[in-house]
Amino acid sequence: MIGIRRASVAPATKRAAAAFGLACTLLLAACSNAAPEAAEGTDGAAQGERVTLKVEVFDRGNSPAGSTITDNYMTNLIQERFGDPNNIDVEYVPVPRSEEVEKLNVLMASGGDVPDIVFTYDPNTFNRYAEQGGLTDVGALLDEHGPNLKAFLGEDVLAYGKYKGVQFAIPAKRSVLGKYASFIRQDWLDKLGMPVPQTTEELYTVLKAFKEQDPGGTGGQVIPLGMTIASAQYEPLIWSFIKPTTEEEKYTLTQQLGSNDYPTLLPGFKDALQFMNKLYNEGLMSKDFALDKDKKKLGEDVSTGKIGFFSEDDINPFYDNGSYETLQTNVPGAILAPVDVYANEEGKHAKPMYAPNGMYIMIPKSSERAVEAIKYLDWMATADNLFELQNGVEGENYTMVDGIPVAVENPTEEAANRLYNVGDMVIVSNGKQLGSMELNLKARAMQMPPEFQDEVDAAQQVANTDVFAPVLLDRPIAAQTKYGTTLLDKFNEMIVKTTMAKPEQFESVYETMLKDYMASGGQAILDERKAVYQEMKAD
């Protein structure tokens, strides 16, 4: 990992689908007509001619007065520092963020008008373009022109940009990988004289005490365990029941629906659902959890002091005017402590983490500026450039505190406008990079309200303990793309119906729901993943 100079530091729509079909058709035509040297990219700038490098940029419609998405502080800085010294005009091509995939398909279908650098957050879009032959193999280009970029990303991140072993995308690097933490009312524990639970079994005992003794004085409205049908609430619980798996089981029995891995077929999943059924039928869990898809009710119940324990995205409760601040206003003396409770049979607090990659950065096969594109990304990934792009001007945008660039409070309008689009311009990184995960997490905590920074530190530690990465296959699973949306609905329906079933009906409800899930595409995914795993082993 490279150092940082100062820190010592350092549902796809029908229209989208139609557009994609057009893109694929024209991509193939464009590729077959492209000259070999165009497909590989030429370094026109190095030969003395002024060239234009076209780069996609998300347009969120939020440019401040005096700026546009293609003409602002950041675009001008990049032109001055990278473009002019390299004899390159950097031209930005706006794509509305809300129509990302659809507009990208149209651009890719345009042949010669497609930007030289495009990107997407959707792995299925990347895989389809690679499969159709529409992308440049950037492996050799990275070796020759992207040493800083390769060092910054590392092999683990770069692996997410490979299709059947070929480097067809440059993945952006996430600065933070932890996803989930759990939280408990410490003042309730103190009132009951109970220690912080360390295992799922101990948590069950605490939840029962919360219900029976109501230490928060809610007048019978206590909700021992806050739950919703959002992944941040149920995933930490469910994964704690998953048993150790072989490599083959991990690759074949996992079902990827959208961007998350789901343990529907893994050993222990049924046990997790049975535990949720027990909690629900004993009145230890949010009664209307199945209706709370946006987590709004959960937030209200936490803020009004009704919930004793819940899981959430790691630092979510601690934002300004967030659920913890509101809780402290509504219930003086309330203490919400981050905890790592759910434990599997190995004693680990197993929980998923984010994939180390963010967006997929791609160079279309028809581009004649592949070399310049790699040089652009390499320049951006160089330590000093990355630091300045992400943080702005010292004294105006940030000050250094303990080796961390901390945003200036109440910056001038000019200073604030410098960085309004930083996340969309600095495409090699998802989040602020300071050279190590430790510094990245420290910087993230220091952006939060000062009174909650210790809790944020603790929550981030929980979120990064005993984590496991998504299962990475070297080629797309067509059945996941075809059935993913339907199966995610089926998965959530399985959780809801098995949880709310009468205990004596659990077994029959589970079997019925699983049979429906498998018939709706789950079996197709299983069969395909088994075949791909065998192919990978044979390679």
Give a short synopsis of this structure.
This protein is of the alpha/beta class and 539 residues long. It has 22 helices and 18 strands. Residues 1-39 have low confidence and may be disordered.
Protein described:
The protein is of the alpha/beta class and 539 residues long. It is 46% helix and 14% strand. The strands form seven sheets. A four-stranded mixed beta sheet has the order 3-14-6-17. A four-stranded mixed beta sheet has the order 8-11-7-12. The chain has a two-stranded parallel sheet with strand order 1-2. The protein is globular and about 80 Å long. Residues 1-39 have low confidence and may be disordered.
Pick out its properties.
539 residues; 4-stranded mixed beta sheet; alpha/beta; disordered N terminus
Rg is 25 Å
The end-to-end span amounts to 30 Å
Helix content: 40-55%
The biggest beta sheet reads: 4 strands, mixed
Main sheet: which strands, in order across? 3-14-6-17
Structural class, from secondary structure content?
alpha/beta
Count the E strands: 18
How much is the average pLDDT? 91
Shape: globular
